[in-house]
Amino acid sequence: MHFFFHEVKDTSCPVFINGLVHDKFMSNGADVEMNYAWHWVDKGELAPLPEELWLITKDRSYSFDFRRAFNGYIISNRLLSLMDKYGTAGWDRAVLHVVNKKEEPISKLDYYFLRISDGRVLSDVIDLSESNVEFRRNGDIKTISHLVLSDEIDAEIFMVNDLALLGVLFCSAYFKLEFDKNVWKGVELIPENKFGVAKQLWDQ
Question: For FRET with 129, which of 44, 50, 101, 166 sits at 20 to 30 Å CA-CA?
């Protein structure tokens, strides 16, 4: 059994991040487009992340431990410290300063922006004999109402190389055992076979 990171809405834990990320502070950064080679390129590979990034936000405060955003993940230092014990230590990352337009910190937590290593984006790991999926005419997966992943996956934290699961971060049962020893905010780990139900909540 595998699990996936599911964002939970709570006080100071908005699902939508009302701001933008830049490689330097700018007072109007929440409204300035992210035109950076480390964020988006038409062809080729993304540039490495800078050592530091600034999230300039219009939100008042943050206390979440995990959010999917900006083609990566915003993760608290305490959660990342746990994840690094399970294979994420080599992933591309940057210190993330989370501030308002006055450059005032809006969280008591320290954050990082994390981008997954290509070696942990796994292909052909969906057990199609056990999963309930709907395909498009071109053969791509359209929807997943019941998901089962291969038992042969040996990665502890990973993504699946399929558009229907774009950006979804999965983990092993071993990682979940350690995760459950702590109290986290704004994130929970849900069994893979509940993915269809959680996807409906994401889309609301």
Answer: 166
Q: Nearest to residue 14, comparing CAs of 167, 189, 186?
A: 186
Q: How far apart are CA 172 and CA 78, in angstroms?
A: 19
Tokens at 28, concatenated: 């109007």
CA-to-CA distance for 17 and 192, rounded, in angstroms?
A: 25
The DSSP output letter for 168 is -
pLDDT in tens, 115-156: 987 667 888 999 988 888 888 887 777 778 889 999 999 999
Q: Which residue has the tokens 């219009």?
A: 58
Across-strand partners of 74? 67, 113
Report in angstroms the alpha-carbon separations of 196 from 7, 162, 191, 199, 203: 14, 15, 11, 5, 11
Local structure of 179: helix, strand or coil? helix
- In this structure, which long-range contacts are made by residues 9-12, counting pairs with CB atoms below 8 Å and at least 24 apart in sequence? 9/186, 10/63, 10/64, 10/185, 10/186, 11/63, 12/60, 12/61, 12/62, 12/63, 12/64, 12/107
Rounded to whole angstroms, the Cα distance separating 83 from 156 reads 9
Neighbours of 106 (CB within 10 A): 18
Contact 100, 57 (CB under 8 A): yes
